[in-house]
Amino acid sequence: MSQYVAAIDQGTTSTRCMIFDHSGRVVSVDQREHKQIFPQAGWVEHDPEEVWRNTREVCAGALAKKDLVTSDVVAVGITNQRETAVVWDRTTGKPVYNAIVWQDTRTDRIVDELGRDGGPDRYRARTGLPLATYFSGPKVKWILDNVDGARAKAEAGDLLFGNMDTWVLWNATGGPNGGLHYTDPTNASRTMLMDLDTLSWAEDHAADMGIPVSMLPEIRSSSEVYGNIRERGAFAGLPVAGILGDQQAATFGQACLSPGEAKNTYGTGNFVLLNTGTEKVMSENGLLTTVCYKIGDNDAVYALEGSIAVTGSLVQWLRDNLGIIAAAPEIEPLARSVDDNGGAYFVPAFSGLFAPYWRSDARGAIVGLTRFVSKGHIARAVLEATAFQSREVIDAMNADSGVALTSLKVDGGMVANELLMQFQADILGVPVIRPVVAETTALGAAYAAGLAVGFWGSEDDIRTNWAQDKQWDPDMDEAHREKIYRTWKKAVTKTFDWVEAE
């Protein structure tokens, strides 16, 4: 008897398959990291074929670890790093170039050119997005402009585009032999090419970027049966029935299903999403308006989002580039070896600054250094940077929504760091709440798939499944809180205007 739902979680640094039971608890998980490719400063790429190989391996691995078989699983959902763009040949299935990752800044000139007619908010009214290197559309334009023969092939109808959800779905359902070229509104809303009201492609935006509409996937809902997996091996024959971009999936998995409910995911970057219901709220404070989810034929639900480029990846940088720690969990005891940051502030603007600033000219900086500062202080400054950046986007969210946040649900890998969670509560001045299942991104995709096939009856089942693991309450004097936050804001200004226009 089928008793589980599986989710493929194609993330920035790794791909996982997680299998969940009806109560939303993790039954099995398998994970593979993929190579981070940095051809030059500001460029970040992934090998799509490596990602697909890893996807197949982790699906088989998740079954094998608990001695499960395909018939134990009722459906498969997909969640993914959202703005990472792949362009491939529809006949051969081969990418024409590596996937360009959401952190990549090479499209800054394209973004500037697009902004000459209408400024940075040229497309915001229809897409909810400012012009920025973050989003998929300019990445596709870059590939068509810079890869030999790509534009001619695209105009002949021979190339396909997708974020990583579409790449995984297309391969899983047959690839060149009838693979499904679909996406959902949460991913489409991250391209700068989708109309938020109609949930359809804005063909004039695609024309502005020189992207043939024939390349774009069909937009379906976030929860429906798209088709069956045709790959031999793990999950063959099962329906793929849910697609959600990773941050929307985490929002769904956190049961933030009513207007006013918010979550913060601590991953490679941080992403705060506030459910605004079926009403789209346009930000006046540097946030994004995005689709939160669309379940079957129901109306789309929208969200305000604060996107932060570098948080968990800063810990990786401390490990891999500086060698200050040997493994990510070591940062907490190192940071606990000191009482505070020693006056040091680390602004990790490695890819510019996302919300609420949207400054592609910014670059990372450590400020306030004295001879007193040790590696313990640097470690603490790294963790505090995550909390400070989250405070900035939550302040913007409070201003846009007109409702002050009273608590914050958190998830993702970094929520295991209890020092960070306490500091987050302190700097926000509200409780921070971690659920029993902290990896809610995969859980949200599983819920979307399970709802589509009747494994879960309604969104009420999701609310019932959510359970609190731990809560951190603020324990910092308000005057001190505001003093160190002001200093952080001052530090941020030191990163502006570092990259000069050519």
From TrEMBL:
<keyword id="KW-0319">Glycerol metabolism</keyword>
<comment type="function">
    <text>Key enzyme in the regulation of glycerol uptake and metabolism. Catalyzes the phosphorylation of glycerol to yield sn-glycerol 3-phosphate.</text>
</comment>
<feature type="binding site">
    <location>
        <position position="246"/>
    </location>
    <ligand>
        <name>sn-glycerol 3-phosphate</name>
    </ligand>
</feature>
<feature type="binding site">
    <location>
        <position position="417"/>
    </location>
    <ligand>
        <name>ADP</name>
    </ligand>
</feature>
<dbReference type="InterPro" id="IPR000577">
    <property type="entry name" value="Carb_kinase_FGGY"/>
</dbReference>
<dbReference type="InterPro" id="IPR018483">
    <property type="entry name" value="Carb_kinase_FGGY_CS"/>
</dbReference>
<dbReference type="GO" id="GO:0006072">
    <property type="term" value="P:glycerol-3-phosphate metabolic process"/>
</dbReference>
<feature type="binding site">
    <location>
        <position position="82"/>
    </location>
    <ligand>
        <name>sn-glycerol 3-phosphate</name>
    </ligand>
</feature>
<feature type="binding site">
    <location>
        <position position="13"/>
    </location>
    <ligand>
        <name>ATP</name>
    </ligand>
</feature>
<feature type="binding site">
    <location>
        <position position="16"/>
    </location>
    <ligand>
        <name>ADP</name>
    </ligand>
</feature>
<feature type="binding site">
    <location>
        <position position="12"/>
    </location>
    <ligand>
        <name>sn-glycerol 3-phosphate</name>
    </ligand>
</feature>
<feature type="binding site">
    <location>
        <position position="316"/>
    </location>
    <ligand>
        <name>ATP</name>
    </ligand>
</feature>
<comment type="similarity">
    <text>Belongs to the FGGY kinase family.</text>
</comment>
<feature type="binding site">
    <location>
        <position position="413"/>
    </location>
    <ligand>
        <name>ADP</name>
    </ligand>
</feature>
<feature type="binding site">
    <location>
        <position position="12"/>
    </location>
    <ligand>
        <name>ADP</name>
    </ligand>
</feature>
<feature type="binding site">
    <location>
        <position position="312"/>
    </location>
    <ligand>
        <name>ATP</name>
    </ligand>
</feature>
<feature type="domain" description="Carbohydrate kinase FGGY N-terminal">
    <location>
        <begin position="4"/>
        <end position="253"/>
    </location>
</feature>
<keyword id="KW-0547">Nucleotide-binding</keyword>
<feature type="binding site">
    <location>
        <position position="134"/>
    </location>
    <ligand>
        <name>glycerol</name>
    </ligand>
</feature>
<keyword id="KW-0418">Kinase</keyword>
<keyword id="KW-0067">ATP-binding</keyword>
<feature type="binding site">
    <location>
        <position position="83"/>
    </location>
    <ligand>
        <name>sn-glycerol 3-phosphate</name>
    </ligand>
</feature>
<comment type="pathway">
    <text>Polyol metabolism; glycerol degradation via glycerol kinase pathway; sn-glycerol 3-phosphate from glycerol: step 1/1.</text>
</comment>
<dbReference type="GO" id="GO:0019563">
    <property type="term" value="P:glycerol catabolic process"/>
</dbReference>
<feature type="binding site">
    <location>
        <position position="14"/>
    </location>
    <ligand>
        <name>ATP</name>
    </ligand>
</feature>
<dbReference type="InterPro" id="IPR005999">
    <property type="entry name" value="Glycerol_kin"/>
</dbReference>
<dbReference type="GO" id="GO:0005524">
    <property type="term" value="F:ATP binding"/>
</dbReference>
<feature type="binding site">
    <location>
        <position position="268"/>
    </location>
    <ligand>
        <name>ATP</name>
    </ligand>
</feature>
<feature type="binding site">
    <location>
        <position position="82"/>
    </location>
    <ligand>
        <name>glycerol</name>
    </ligand>
</feature>
<dbReference type="InterPro" id="IPR043129">
    <property type="entry name" value="ATPase_NBD"/>
</dbReference>
<dbReference type="GO" id="GO:0005829">
    <property type="term" value="C:cytosol"/>
</dbReference>
<dbReference type="GO" id="GO:0004370">
    <property type="term" value="F:glycerol kinase activity"/>
</dbReference>
<dbReference type="Pfam" id="PF02782">
    <property type="entry name" value="FGGY_C"/>
</dbReference>
<dbReference type="Pfam" id="PF00370">
    <property type="entry name" value="FGGY_N"/>
</dbReference>
<protein>
    <recommendedName>
        <fullName>Glycerol kinase</fullName>
        <ecNumber>2.7.1.30</ecNumber>
    </recommendedName>
</protein>
<feature type="binding site">
    <location>
        <position position="83"/>
    </location>
    <ligand>
        <name>glycerol</name>
    </ligand>
</feature>
<feature type="binding site">
    <location>
        <position position="12"/>
    </location>
    <ligand>
        <name>ATP</name>
    </ligand>
</feature>
<keyword id="KW-0808">Transferase</keyword>
<feature type="domain" description="Carbohydrate kinase FGGY C-terminal">
    <location>
        <begin position="263"/>
        <end position="452"/>
    </location>
</feature>
<feature type="binding site">
    <location>
        <position position="312"/>
    </location>
    <ligand>
        <name>ADP</name>
    </ligand>
</feature>
<dbReference type="InterPro" id="IPR018484">
    <property type="entry name" value="FGGY_N"/>
</dbReference>
<dbReference type="InterPro" id="IPR018485">
    <property type="entry name" value="FGGY_C"/>
</dbReference>
